[in-house]
Amino acid sequence: MMQNKRKCNHCQLEFEEKALFSSFIKGEEKYFCCKGCEGVYRLLYLQGLEDFYNKLGNNTLDSFVDSKDSLETFDTQSFLDKYVIKKDSLYEISLILEKIHCIACVWLNEKILSKQKGIIKVCINYTTNKATLLFDLESIKVSEIIATIRSIGYDAHIYDVRLQEQYAQKQKRDYYIRLSVGIFCMMNIMWIAVAQYAGYFSGISLPMRNILNIAGFALSTPVLFFSGWVFWKGAYFALKHKTPNMDLLVISGATLAYLYSIYASFKGGETYFESVVMIITFVLIGKFLEVSGKKSAVDSLDKINAQIPLSVNVLRGNKREEVSVYDVKIGEIIEAKPGECIAIDGTLLSANALCDESALNGESLPIQKQYQDKILSGSLVLNTPLCYQVSKEFKDSLMTSIVNMVEESLNIHPKIQEQANKIARFFSLVMFFLGFMTFLSWFYYLEASFDKSLMVAISVIIIACPCALALATPIACLVGLGRAIEQKILFKEARFLETIAKADTLVLDKTGTLTQGKLKVVEIKSNATQEELNVLAQILRQSSHPISQAVLKVLPHNDVVCAFDTLEQINARGMIARIGEDIYLGGNFELLEERSVRIPEEIYQSQGDKSSFCFAKNQRFLGFYALEDSIKEDAFSALERLKKMGIALVLLSGDNEGVCKKVAEALGIKEYYAKQSPIDKADFIDRLHKEGRVVVMAGDGINDSIALGKSDIGIAMGGGIDLAINVSDIVILDDRIEGVKEAFYLGRKTYVFIKQNLGISLIYNALTIPLAMFGFVIPLIAALSMSLSSLVVVLNSMRLKQ
After folding, report:
1. pLDDT above 80 for 386
2. In this predicted structure, what is the pLDDT of residue 585?
3. C-beta of residue 124 within 8 angstroms of C-beta of residue 109
4. Three-class SS string for 679-742?
5. Beta bridge partners of 323
6. What is the DSSP string of 151-215?
7. Helix (H), strand (E) at residue 25
8. How far is CA 34 from CA 145, 188, 265, 551, in A?
9. CB 28: neighbour CB atoms within 10 A?
């Protein structure tokens, strides 16, 4: 007979189809002759080099002989340079773990990896299966880390966020096949159970009873060993590493019922094959719904990931080359066509361009870019092609940083989750003990039959599985973080949801936070010469402060370049420059007064409730600029809602008293402080902490970095978005005060749902375990109720999306 043949998708060698194994890559089913070929294929896809196979044509490659050789790739210098990040004397790598199917799998991997010499820290994100490891490369190799993971029944490969969808679909498909077998057998075994129970009351012959028992055995066996394989595997590694988990509880209960039913079939007793099928199937349904729920909750993140292209067109010499985003170097020039998404941050080289940055800040109107303006990854090119020079590597670009921050947000768990996990870890061991004691009590003290005592003990073991307890916090956090992403709010860590829920004080910066940060010069009084104005313009170009940029706009444009001997920026004051013997001062009144510059009285009177900028040379007053800013439209309603939530509001600003008073009164803020330096703001946060307050600070992420760091939660507005990501705990991408209010609201709402979920799981166990111990719950109902408790927790968390 002729055998069907198929080519390996990597080496292109032809094999009998049964000798190949399939794998889903980029949503398509691929076939490989060995793990080595699969690994190389994935690596080429990871780097955006799939076109290699088109160029290969009809040629073939050497096939890999031993998949173990693929581990050596993880220790090559090129791999380390590309995927391993150096952090001081240690190194960090991110991996994707395969075959993770419950929270216990995460705990098991964390525990085993943490025991390895050289691994300092392990964080595994249950929702994305991403493992981040901090390790000493001199003590342990990356290949040894991968080998350790494989030794406990899991697998790992380098992390790429784009592969997440593929693995989620693969996991979902595997559950679907196993669940289909379970449901088919359950539907058929129910008819057998009905016939058995009817026969016990109306009479049934021994041959017919044996036939029904054989049918029950035939239907329950594939369910226990095929559909229940995920539980067998989890239980095996739990026993191997002495870590009892949920899988061990489920498979122990089902196997005991299965073995007893085989024994009862020969002895003429009552069998429980239908209970075995329903225990496995109901729990598997719960797991399938959990996997589906997780996939739904990370859809917002998938939308962000889908925007980032894999390759870009780089101009090298007189040629245009399509290059993987990972291989583009700083300083290279990229050409982007209309409709393309910018992959890497850079500086515009074209005269002008029109970009859509709504993915970053929610701004629906396109933004006009000029020569030398920043081009941000994640923005969309609209009307004409543009060229820009790369200023950051792909891994450091804005959109990549945002995606990484969102991915990492679940790695550090809230304190309430840590407490729940501690309970769940010891819970399984306690329930085995209770199940055993229940059996002894019924069999010896209540003198019940062996099968009755065993069924009661099985019910106790099954009904007590801590699935709902383990899911209570991560599912709520995941949905809450997904909801925040939709609102253009990025939490760096899930634990900040809990912290902001407990916060009672919000400290606000003024410029760029409560106001638009788009200052306009409304009054000018100057007697400076053109040469002195040229020096002032050169000084202001060195500052990114909104006041400096606003004054610069009204100065005459010139291309004169001044060579400063020294140039110093004074926090909350201004700037001092020296050219030869001349000293130039640009800043507020305090700066000039400290340097003994006499300021005319009429200038003081002109200030009023406006921001001011003064200019002087060698103690001679040269000019005054009065500026005004407008309050953000959404600030009024947002702050009013925060006050109704019981949040105390405080305004801290480096601006003058008149301006602060005007803004505070307009927004109904009773407590405000003017002329605050960055150090003053940080000291104020310390005073609030001494009063026992939980403080949230919202600022522009630049001048307020010290205060943001001192606060329990630092919220950076999106104006200085790339820097804001580095100095804050929460980033408001669209720069709205409404986003600050939403962050408080989501934190409190998520925390309420976490407590609800924990309450549901604890009440469930408190009520059902005693009922099972007293014999009021059969194994079938125990499996159903345990699955329903997990489902209730997932569905309750999904209400956060509303």
Report:
1. yes
2. 92
3. yes
4. HHHHHHHHHHHHCCCCEEEEECCCCCHHHHHHCCEEEEEHHHHHHHHHHCCEEECCCCHHHHHH
5. 312
6. HTT-EEEE--GGGHHHHHHHHHHHHHHHHHHHHHHHHHHHHHHHHHHHHHHH---HHHHHHHHHH
7. strand 21-25
8. 21, 39, 45, 66
9. 9
- Check if the beta carbon of residue 329 is closer than 8 Å to that of residue 351: no
- Report pLDDT digits (tens) over 617-643: 988 999 899 888 888 888 899 999 999
Q: Are strands 311-316 and 319-324 parallel, antiparallel or unpaired?
A: antiparallel
Q: Is the pLDDT of residue 649 over 90?
A: yes
Assess contact for 315 and 353: CB atoms under 8 A. Answer: no
| More reliable by pLDDT, 721 or 172 | 172
Distance CA 701, CA 686 (A): 19
Tell me how far apart the alpha carbons of residues 612 and 625 are, in angstroms, rounded to a whole number: 6
Q: How far apart, in whole angstroms, are the C-alpha atoms of residue 371 and residue 346?
A: 12
Residue 206 pLDDT greater than 80, yes or no: no
Tokens of 788: 């329903």
For residue 125, give every residue at least 6 positions away whose Cβ sits within 8 Å of its Cβ, in sequence order, or none: 131, 132, 407, 408, 410, 411
201, pLDDT greater than 80: no
Q: Give the tokens for residue 560.
A: 């004169």
- Site of tokens 């098991």: 108
Higher-pLDDT residue of 64, 80: 80
Rounded to an integer, what distance in angstroms lies between the CA atom of residue 574 and that of residue 568? Answer: 9
CA distances from 687 to 176, 507, 508, 676, 694 (A): 57, 12, 16, 14, 11
Chain-wide mean pLDDT for the chain? 77
What letter does residue 550 receive in the DSSP assignment? H
Bridge partners of residue 577, in order along the sequence: 567, 584
